[in-house]
Amino acid sequence: MKYFPLIWATLWRKKTRTIFTLLSVIIAFLLFGLLETVDYAFSHPSGGVTGADKLITTNKYSITLSLPFSDLQQIRSVPGVVAVTWFTWFGGYYQESKNFVFAIPIDSDTYFDYHKDEFIVSDAALKDYASTRTGALVNVALMKKYGWKVGDKVPLHSTIWTQKKDGSLDWTFDIVGTFDVKDATQASAQSSTLLFHYELFDEGRSFGKGNVSWFQERVSDSAKSAAIAGQIDALFANSSDETKTQPANDFALTFLKQLGDIGFVVHAILGAVFFTLLFLTGNTMMQSVRERIPELAVLKTLGFTDGKVVGLVIAESLLLCVIAALIGLGLSYAALPVVKIGLQGVQLSPAALIPGIGVAVILALIVGTPPALRASRLNIIDALADRR
Amino acid sequence: MSEAIVSLRNVTKRYVRGKQSVHVLENLNLDIPKGDFVALMGPSGSGKTTLLNLIGGLDTPTSGEITVAGQRLDQLSSGGLSHWRANHVGFVFQFYNLMPMLTAQRNVELPLLLTKLSGAQRKANALAALTLVGIADRAKHKPNELSGGQAQRVAIARALVADPTLLVCDEPTGDLDRKSADDVLHLLQMLNREHGKSIVMVTHDPKAAEFAGRQLHMDKGALLEAGALAA
Asked: Strand (E) positions, chain B?
């Protein structure tokens, strides 16, 4: 600790340069914290199905392959399954392709039973919805976004489903009510949702009739969800449509992983960032030591050994990198709630930030060692002669 | 004659520059008694700074024996020389060589970082050294807030603070005006006379040399004053 004032003062010898270097390292570690946290979430799912009370059953081989609607009755018959609903991707937009609408054809009874703790919807709206074949319930945020009102007719363009009657991709719905979400963290995920009748959809589509994308189940005892998942999949083993049942959270990860190898992308980005950072910080440290050669020579003149000089330069590098890493990781920790909202179903853990400290130490050693060795090797007489 | 604090026997120093070998000192013999204040004078290239560096343990001879404060410096390793310098010698340079980002007090404390003294003791000793050189009131100032004379006093305080046996001064007044130079030389004289510090000072300035108890002249790597040679 007695060397700290010397190291600290040396670090701030060129304030502007130190601030810019700190900022670049802080931003790198902010990025590290955010990306590693996401990667950690993807590589550490909920630990299997134990503890999950919501399951999702998809085609075993790909979530893009459908399942027969007739599987519903068999799934319902599995002991412990208390609610089942189903989902089919509609892929709709309003007027322009950039106006994505998350339109879901639902069976209102089973859907709201499954999501009973999640949505706020009035009985009057549910009643009007049940009595209107082309009715739609729309999230309040979506209503506000497009200035829709209850009673409006809303045309949506499906990117997949043509209508049996005329081959059109355009589907028109009557807004009969709105819904909101109870959990504020879900607000973003549900902000584009429009619910409409599955019967209308299934009867109206020109192909795929009787098939759904996946089933969603709620179980009575989450401790038994692993066994229940196994029983569901066993029902369809060796059939033409084998299933894969997993916790809803894990399914969200699987869904996002369809985008690509998240871990590879994350580490490729971080690799590029830290490779650049190595040169940036390394150059700064080299320049800093070059400028201080006479001062380092004075320290050696006073009796500082080569080892102590190496220690001082390495310590300076460590101080710079670790301080910046702590700030950057702290900022990424503070940003976790925001990231969590953006990645529904992904559980983020601060544990992913811990390796960041190790990375900071390694970075400091790599960028600090060459100038430290240079400082230790300098000849006192030659170095002092620069000033004479 | 009192005990010699510096003793050189047949010291030769040769530098190799490319394919050329440059002989800077040739078979030099010298004794400096403890408590002496010696001025080393001579033209540029005469070898006086090389001699000073050898006495201060900053450099090692190509051949010969150098004994300072009872220690054979020519037999010490680089690390051994570092430890020896920390304990036995204080350096004063022409351009002060203070750390620009540290206050005067912190600069003076630097040699004490190599000791086991506590922070409070280091601070007290640094302030005592600054008081001795008459500049305690500037303890919290950084070098760029000091005049040349004040900066050199801080440098002298730094050289003194670990209570070294020997002070090695390389053109300590070379960057100062006459008044400041005289003040610094009076200070060195006081440290020699009242505190018994042995001082070896390189200077071009005959007036500065007059403050020393003895003057040695060098030319072409050899000492000219016969009296300085060991009997």
From this structure: 4-17, 20-33, 37-41, 63-68, 71-72, 89-92, 166-170, 198-202, 214-219, 222-223
Say how many C-beta atoms besides its own lie within 10 A of residue A64's C-beta: 10
Structure tokens at A275: 């490779």
Please report how many Cα atoms fall inside a 13 Å half-sphere around the Cα of residue A54, on the Cβ side: 17
B4-17 and A67-68: which strand pairing?
unpaired
What superfamily would CATH give domain B36-53+88-228? P-loop containing nucleotide triphosphate hydrolases (3.40.50.300)
CB-facing half-sphere around the CA of B34: CA atoms within 13 A: 13
- A301:B102 CB<8 A: no
Strand, helix or coil at A88? coil
Q: How far apart are CA A58 and CA A40, in angstroms?
A: 24
Instruction: Report the alpha-carbon distance of residue B122 to residue B110 in Å, rounded.
Output: 9
Is pLDDT of B123 > 70? yes
Q: In this predicted model, what pLDDT tens digit does every residue of A93-119 receive, in sequence order?
A: 999 988 999 999 998 888 888 887 788
Phi first, then psi: what are they for A266, rounded to 5°?
A: -60, -50
Closest CA to A114 of A88, A134, A86: A86
Chain B environment of A301 (Cβ under 8 Å):
56, 58, 85, 91, 97
DSSP labels, A117-133: TTEE--HHHHHHHHH-T
- The pTM of the whole model exceeds 0.80: no
Among B56, B84, B106, beta carbon nearest to A5: B106
